[in-house]
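chain below, 241 aa
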Amino acid sequence: MFVAPPGVRGGGAGRSSGVRGGVGVTRRHVELAQVAPWWVEAELQAAGPLAWGALFPACSGPVAVELGCGYGLFLRDLAALTPTRPFLGVEQDRGAALRAARKLMLAQSPNARVLAGDAFWAIHQLFRAGEVGDVYVNFPDPWPKRRHARRRYVRQPFVAELYQKMAPGHAVFLATDVAAYADEMELLFGGHPGFVGGRVAAKPVGVASKYELDFQAQGLTIHYLVYRVATAPLPAGAAAP
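prediction:
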């Protein structure tokens, strides 16, 4: 039986925009129909990993993934830089995900799509080993209170799952304005034997997210980290956590 991605609700009631064949057509249905080429949903009815080659027939290589793509500014602009490379934006908030898909539609992006769902669930459930390319994590919610720490998705199980699914040589690009969260990311990725890298002084990606533009305008310090999947096998006895 198909299980919806965690945290994702159904299409929502919406206001009826008409009746066709005796069935009410909601505004949400109309929106989904408009953005269908940039929206990953019907494909989720199939159990297990998706057929990414069929979803991106004109592209090649592992799928680059932005986790927490918000309204899609970063996703749209990054995908435009390499139109033959496939990009997926994953966003927990369905309304924001729809706005991101609409942004891709307006740009007629040929190589990017959006999925409404949980970040860890998407990586774990929808990809086979080696199918994930570069991963972008821009300003994830830091959940600063100790009792909420388990809600952060940059945790040890997340790091281990990325290692299992990412293609060797590809990288995780992280950005946060919270120094303590940057320290935690550094500890988690730096402590995994399958990743090499660390903090970088200069912005490593040529496009900006909405939060990044906002925080730069406020003069806040932004912490950038880049960790690449090691191309060499792990040393004997150093199994990935």
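The beta strands are 16-20, 23-26, 63-67, 87-91, 112-116, 132-138, 171-176, 195-200, 223-229. DSSP finds eight helices and nine strands in the chain.
thats it, cya
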